[in-house]
Amino acid sequence: MSDFTLNASVRHDLGKGASRRLRRANEQVPAIVYGGEKAPEPISVEKTSFYKALEEESFFSSLITLQIEGKSQQVVVRDLQRHPYKPLITHADFLRVDATHEINLRVPLHVVGEESCKAINEEDGELHVLSNEIEISCLPKDLPDYLEVDISALEIGSTLHLSDLTVSAGVTRVDLAHGEGHDNAVLSITKAKIRSDEEEDEATETGAADEDDAGDDKAQKSEGESQDNEKKKDNDE
């Protein structure tokens, strides 16, 4: 599990105007930390280290240590509010984590083994990733950065579901807790669709016919306009 630490301070100046001034100073990001037995606490996070952490995929599925004026709290990211068109974070929500209670979090799936998958490299198979992340539940100490999916031995026509994923002890796939009907597919390998020579010829002929029709329509329109101009000229004379 990755280790992230962010420095923050308590916000005493609250409201939209205060948040705008904070963002305008471009040194800190408005945020809030909540959950557990403590009351929600408005904070501001040091911008440079926060933005650097955001570049790491694992940041969103890891425990984060918030250092708030000398006191540390374990949290996870719950929500980020982004500027509508600028690459800026306007507000962040952090959820306090209790080491004795399970948390639900979405973690990414990492597909490996594609370079050694015979179905893809020798049999014209196509990989279709149907889900890039799944929701898991576990104690904070068991939280993985990601789940690895090895496809090296898969054959054409294979489909992997949530129940096929390997997870470590203590980790539960949340959707499966709702029953077999929620055992969703996460990826599949299918035979690549190759257009036959007849289909290629038909497509070429269709394209050529469309171009001919367009040319005929243009010629007819031009001829019609020419006749209209001649009639108008005769009427004027």
Structure description:
This protein is of the alpha+beta class. The protein is 26% helix and 35% strand. The protein is built from four helices and 13 strands. The protein has helices at 16-25, 47-54, 118-121, 197-236, and strands at 4-10, 28-34, 41-46, 64-68, 71-82, 89-96, 103-112, 125-129, 133-138, 147-150, 159-161, 172-173, 185-191. The strands form three sheets. The protein has a six-stranded mixed β-barrel. The radius of gyration is 30 Å and the shape is elongated. The model is unreliable at 232-237 (pLDDT under 50).
Gyration radius, in Å? 30 Å
Helix/strand order: EHEEHEEEEHEEEEEEH
* Secondary structure category: alpha+beta
**Count of helical stretches:** 4
Task: Indicate the low-confidence ranges by residue numbers.
Answer: 232-237
Number of strands: 13
Mean pLDDT: 82
Which helices and strands, and how do they pair?
Elements: E1 4-10, H1 16-25, E2 28-34, E3 41-46, H2 47-54, E4 64-68, E5 71-82, E6 89-96, E7 103-112, H3 118-121, E8 125-129, E9 133-138, E10 147-150, E11 159-161, E12 172-173, E13 185-191, H4 197-236
Name the descriptors.
about 240 residues, alpha+beta, six-stranded mixed barrel, four-stranded mixed β-sheet, 13 strands, disordered C terminus
Offer a quick outline of the entry.
By secondary structure, the chain is of the alpha+beta class. The protein has helices at residues 16-25, 47-54, 118-121, 197-236; strands at residues 4-10, 28-34, 41-46, 64-68, 71-82, 89-96, 103-112, 125-129, 133-138, 147-150, 159-161, 172-173, 185-191. It has a six-stranded mixed beta barrel.
